[in-house]
Amino acid sequence: MEKAHDVLIRNLGEHTKLAAEDVAEIRALTFTQRDFAPNEDFIRQGDEPEHSALVVSGMVARYHLLGSGRRQYLAFHLSGDLPDSQGLFIDQMDHALCALGPATVAFIPHRELFIAFRRRPTFGQAVWRETLRDAAIFREAITNNSARPMQARMAHLCCELFYRARVAQLVRGNRCRVPISLTQLGETLGMAIATVNRTLAELRRTGTMDLREGELIVLKWRELQRLGDFNPAYLHLKPQLVR
Amino acid sequence: MEKAHDVLIRNLGEHTKLAAEDVAEIRALTFTQRDFAPNEDFIRQGDEPEHSALVVSGMVARYHLLGSGRRQYLAFHLSGDLPDSQGLFIDQMDHALCALGPATVAFIPHRELFIAFRRRPTFGQAVWRETLRDAAIFREAITNNSARPMQARMAHLCCELFYRARVAQLVRGNRCRVPISLTQLGETLGMAIATVNRTLAELRRTGTMDLREGELIVLKWRELQRLGDFNPAYLHLKPQLVR
DNA sequence: CGTCTTCTTGACCCTTTTCAAGCGCAGTGG
DNA sequence: CCACTGCGCTTGAAAAGGGTCAAGAAGACG
Questions:
Q1: Where is the HTH crp-type domain (chains A, B) (predicted)?
Q2: Which residues from B are below 8 Å from A when comparing CB atoms?
């Protein structure tokens, strides 16, 4: 199956200019692909990673597991993302990864990646950049969950997901798949499930956006952006066409 | 002045085994050193970085600036840290850096770093690792500010600062310098300044720790660790001796 | 000695959490 | 085919925790 390579090349190309040789090097990588059921874990806290994951389709989440059993979701990943590129130089995973809805993930041995990095430093830098973009998204999450009121948090998260989905060409019309439950939204944004519901209801009421049945519909993009104080600069992508 | 090289080598050595050639390569780097006053910015949001910073002494902070003028502090850095290694492959800074107390920072051109990375890939990987540890700290901050009650947040932050200070050999007895104001603590942990004060007063009252006049004193380390649900694994350092 | 900033504390109010109950739907097994 | 069950969503009412506001104390600095 060619798709794993395609989505990776597409994604890295969003921020790094890849030479034909880099593309060839990536196409030579051997991926092992696997399908996961919703909420199925594929990397656990404490694992010692020897492979890197690549989201081929569906959505994937990273989360911390707290002593109380509560989860804290940290980030979400769409097709083309390397959700555990962070594990490349790390002894033990400090967080877990799971499929959000049904998802297809491809794995590649670190060993093989390191060889490719040596042969094509640009490829290595592209992956490094990828990890830095990840970090920028984390920073924004700190700010979002610490400094913004509830509605703004929700709006910001949805802006980010929608924007990234558009870049990954996963938006059709004004909607994209976001197979996430209210409980998970709460564990992402640090709010109680009741508040999640009421916040979503309010955004629905004002006709700004609608998130239900695993689908996000953005009705007033600029308004949503304003509410969430969303500025996509932190995603460090090539400027995108915004409606 | 040799100190800049020393602290960098010490810091990278905490997680990466450097060969003599790597150390020599680092020693050959030309740093431009500068002193900064408390709260002085040295990198601003929107800057296009051409240099990397290295904290030589003192403490440095990274923050987001919100539309309202409020700041959200994202991370703190001690001597040896490369607080904007994130800027290496990034077009525009999405956050600012400032000195917390008086601080000395050394700068090195990206160009020179890239050359050194090519000559000594291990050095490049060490810096990459450094950026990944940064990201792990961000992740922990998301969890801290989203999922933990106020006292635990404070305890966790102080545990992290104290632990890292110890690794950087900045702890003497049970105390270390942390030149941070209540306002800044509030803008770090996402709490109102009154709450910051009350939380600190409570920790002081129970004799767990004391943070005042720019100095952190840890009186009951294990208790503080328990309160803050602090597990240093996420720092990805070599196991440290803990009292 | 006065002024400014930072810290401290109290009182009040409001947002959000918690708790509880009900609804709708999908899957299961009688 | 239809209870039964479990899960996720919805909503209301009560409770709590933290935010806001205001005023005073304690230093720091000129």
A1: 148-222
A2: 62, 64, 66-67, 70, 72, 74, 86, 88-92, 94-95, 118, 121, 125, 128-129, 131-132, 134-136, 138-143, 145-147, 187, 189-190, 229, 233-234, 236
